[in-house]
């Protein structure tokens, strides 16, 4: 485990060299205002600085311009992996009050009924979210006398929780892996004075929320004894500290594994790390998808005479998920000028058919207009667009053959030759059989005489 931790640190260090991440993170401090409304004030986190004094920010309240010390390195490492060209994550801060964990299964994390005085002070919860990261970090603002210089406030990152899979797209029926890592450094030596050396016990909680409903998926407290709630949906978590330093900092792993994901498991997953009197939470999204299969009938040819209405075309779009976001387009390709156009005619969709695995199917119908001689050889195509498919979608097509306009092809000639050859052989065989029967009959009559 120690070797794995060193390899991870080396990997993060090498990535940081390539991209050190943002030096300053612009945030908003969100507070409760009058009438239950939320108020927002600008804030900023100074994560790195060059030589000399920190850059001035006269636009900020000095208490909201925070120079962040990151003893675990987790905050810097997570942002160091941030793609240089990606939009900056949305960042919000709020004041935080240390409290014992409310869940009964995590009660063993609280040695005392109230928070120790060593945790007094001003705490801030910082949350960052984007398409590439979901991060929350608990900061403790240092004492007023430690502010240096006067226009900036010092703060220390105590507990940082990170997921590099803020949105996971998983195929229906496959296993999902929701990434989660965390790092902790006690804010003061007094905090760990009553604890044994080494990483403290912690609680890991994963909750699922979807369509206004939520439930506990998994809870674990490595290092503590006690009855735990049973995990749901076969969920398994890799809940462990990755290192065993006597006084910290420590890094840990809380990745969640969900086997054979079903549609009812999509939604938001809230991961919470509980430590004595402090908790930090991040949210990751799980989206379940299954691309549709597309087939078109009648196939491979549609026959019609000039002026005649071709047979109805049926496009089967089967076993896809989610039901939302499906679009079906009818195209006519080829024709007189090898054109590409939207197919004319009357089109409609059937109702959804639901399958036992949670996927759905439907059929798209097109009644083409009467065929013309110019449309001979054109191809009717059914193109399907769905969130699980590439931008161009998926299509199936059939060819329109107008009767009376097809000249005999080489294949037709070969077919006619073979048919004639077989018929000639058949006639010869029948003649031979008739001759044999006639000869046999004459022989029998002679014997009878």
SSE arrangement:
Layout: H1 2-18, E1 24-32, E2 38-46, E3 65-69, H2 74-80, E4 90-96, E5 122-129, E6 134-141, E7 153-163, E8 167-171, E9 176-178, E10 181-184, E11 203-210, E12 213-220, E13 236-237, E14 240-241, E15 250-253, E16 256-258, E17 267-275, E18 278-289, E19 293-297, E20 301-304, E21 313-320, E22 327-334, E23 339-342, E24 346-349, E25 353-354, E26 360-367, E27 379-385, E28 394-402, H3 410-448
Parallel strand pairs: 1-4, 2-3, 3-7, 8-18, 20-28
Antiparallel strand pairs: 1-2, 4-5, 5-6, 6-7, 7-10, 9-16, 10-15, 11-12, 11-17, 13-16, 14-15, 17-18, 19-21, 21-26, 22-23, 22-27, 24-26, 25-26, 27-28
Helix pairs in contact: 1-2
Structure in words:
With 449 residues, the protein is mainly beta. The chain has 2 domains: 256 residues, Immunoglobulin-like, CATH 2.60.40.10; 110 residues, Immunoglobulins (Immunoglobulin-like). Helix content is 14%, strand content 39%. The protein contains 3 helices and 28 strands. The chain has a 7-stranded mixed β-barrel with strand order 1-2-3-7-6-5-4. β1 and β2 form a beta hairpin. α1 crosses α2. It is elongated. The N terminus is likely disordered.
């Amino acid at each position: 485990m120690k070797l794995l931790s060193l390899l991870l640190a080396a990997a993060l260090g090498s990535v940081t060299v390539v991209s050190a991440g943002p030096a300053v993170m612009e945030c908003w401090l969100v507070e409760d205002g009058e009438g239950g409304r939320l108020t927002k004030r600008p804030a900023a986190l100074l994560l790195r600085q060059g030589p000399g004094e920190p850059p001035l920010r006269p636009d900020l309240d000095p208490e909201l311009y925070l120079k962040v010390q990151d003893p675990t390195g987790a905050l810097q490492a997570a942002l160091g992996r941030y793609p240089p060209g990606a939009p900056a994550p949305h960042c919000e801060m709020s004041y935080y009050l240390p409290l014992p964990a409310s869940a009964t299964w995590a009660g063993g994390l609280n040695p005392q009924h109230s928070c120790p005085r060593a945790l007094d002070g001003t705490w801030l919860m910082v949350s960052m979210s984007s398409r590439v990261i979901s991060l929350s970090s608990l900061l403790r603002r240092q004492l007023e006398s430690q502010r240096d210089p006067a226009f900036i406030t010092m703060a220390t990152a105590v507990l940082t929780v990170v997921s590099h899979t803020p949105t996971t797209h998983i195929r229906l029926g496959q296993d999902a892996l929701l990434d989660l890592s965390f790092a902790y450094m006690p804010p003061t030596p007094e905090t760990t004075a009553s604890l044994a050396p080494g990483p403290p016990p912690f609680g890991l909680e994963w909750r699922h929320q979807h369509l206004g409903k939520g439930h506990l998926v998994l809870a674990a407290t490595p290092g503590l004894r006690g009855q735990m709630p049973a995990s749901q949906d076969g969920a398994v978590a890799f809940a462990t500290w990755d290192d065993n330093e006597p006084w910290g900092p420590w890094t840990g792993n809380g990745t969640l594994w969900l086997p054979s994901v079903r549609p009812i498991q999509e939604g938001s997953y809230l991961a919470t790390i509980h430590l004595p009197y402090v908790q930090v939470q991040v949210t990751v999204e799980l989206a379940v998808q299954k691309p549709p299969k597309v087939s078109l009938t009648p196939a491979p040819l549609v026959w019609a005479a000039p002026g005649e209405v071709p047979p109805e075309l049926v496009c089967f779009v089967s076993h896809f998920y989610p039901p939302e976001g499906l679009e079906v387009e009818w195209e006519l390709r080829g024709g007189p000028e090898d054109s590409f156009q939207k197919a004319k005619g009357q089109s409609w969709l059937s109702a959804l058919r639901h399958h036992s695995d949670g996927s759905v199917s439907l059929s798209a119908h097109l009644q083409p207009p009467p065929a013309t001689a110019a449309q001979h050889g054109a191809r009717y195509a059914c193109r399907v667009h769905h969130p699980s498919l590439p931008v161009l979608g998926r299509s199936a097509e059939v060819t329109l053959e107008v009767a009376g306009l097809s000249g005999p092809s080489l294949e037709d000639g070969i077919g006619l030759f073979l048919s004639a050859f077989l018929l000639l052989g058949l006639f010869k065989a029948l003649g031979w059989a008739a001759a044999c029967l006639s000869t046999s009959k004459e022989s029998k009559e002679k014997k009878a005489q």
